[in-house]
Amino acid sequence: MRKILAIDAGGTSTRAVVLDLSGRCLAFGRAGSGNPTARGIDSAAEQLAVAAGLAAGTDATPTDRGSSAVIALAGAPSAAFAEQLSARFAPLGFDGPVAVEPDLLGTYYSGTVAREGSALIAGTGAVAGRVHRGRLDFARGGTGWLLGDAGAGFWIGRRVARAAVAALDHLGPETALTDAVLGHFGIGHAPGRARGRSSVLVHLMDEIYDLRPVELARLAPLAFGALDDPVAHGILTAAAGELGTLLEAVRGDEASGPIVLGGGILSAGMRLAPSIFAGPLEAAARGAELIAVPDGVVGAAVLGLRKAGVSVDAGLLSRIQDDVSRLRSEQTGTDSP
């Protein structure tokens, strides 16, 4: 059976689904970060292969030669990265072409089949784009944790860390984020001093500086767990405003079609803190339909089918969405992405 391997490679996690040319999804796999910018080429390629192997390995149907792969990925992959993927996917039965598409298209086609519209992703990073005639017309943001991505996971996580450190250093207000951050790193409130500071602060500083900077995105969920805290609320309010500004930058006055929202931060924001996130996004949408999706793996499947010459209408998209939701739930035991 000729199959398609569809992968959404995010900065925090990677999702993969195997489907046949009828659009029937056969198996699902998940692994760690598959973004080569965030993780490096070797680590990212390994995680994509893990997710692909989990999906391919749970389907007993033989895979015909020429079965292909489509990856929705932020940034432009290097030739070395593409070569690694081809070498890793071939033993799994996917020895055909490996196509890499923008993560914005993966997200967009996870929520709609409209040929005109926009997508906004806020996960580890943040990027928005306009879709015109079925292709990505232009993008804004997505410049990475060091240069931009305001309102996304790293941006929030860094502010969470700074708030906790400032409170411990008596340079900022007390906040529930302090205990949340200490708990994240397994640090207790032990007495004592070191290097002229509290030993707790020194321990926390050491833990944070041992991370790669982008890993601060792991602290972003702590803000959503402390919505009643003024500091956490302020961080999320500022994040929502930044994401609204980013969406406004791609919508402008002439944009048409729906807006698909993806990524862990937007998913959490619309689900856990709609009073904070909905307003700025709806203002930027200017009446356009907002469609929230958990990630871009459904869209990667849609792109794979289209590359294989299969027409994807709203009915087929709905079936793929249902299949992926079911397979995801069966693997994890939950409906959450």
Descriptive report:
A hairpin with a 3-residue loop joins strand 1 and strand 2 (13-20). By secondary structure, this protein is an alpha/beta fold. It has 13 helices and twelve strands. The strands form three sheets. The chain has a five-stranded mixed β-sheet, sandwiched between helices. The chain is globular. It has two domains: 3-107 and 296-332, Nucleotidyltransferase, domain 5 (2-Layer Sandwich); 112-292, 2-Layer Sandwich (Nucleotidyltransferase, domain 5). 49% of the residues are buried.
Highlighted features:
337 residues, alpha/beta, Nucleotidyltransferase, domain 5, 2 domains, five-stranded mixed β-sheet, 13 helices
- By CATH, the superfamily of the largest domain comes out as ATPase, nucleotide binding domain
Give start-end ranges of low-pLDDT stretches: none
Could you please say which CATH topology of the largest domain applies here? Nucleotidyltransferase, domain 5
Q: Please provide the count of β strands.
A: 12
**Structural Rg:** 21 Å
Query: How many domains would you count in the coordinates?
Result: 2
State mean pLDDT (0 to 100 scale): 93
CATH architecture of the largest domain: 2-Layer Sandwich
Number of DSSP helical runs: 13
Q: How many angstroms separate the termini?
A: 28 Å
Main-sheet strand order equals 3-2-1-4-5
Series of H and E elements: EEEHHEHEHEEEHHEEHHHEHHEHH
Task: Give the class-level CATH name of the largest domain.
Answer: Alpha Beta
- Envelope shape: globular
Secondary structure class reads alpha/beta
Measured as a percent range, the helix fraction is 40-55%
In this structure, how is the largest beta sheet organized?
5 strands, mixed
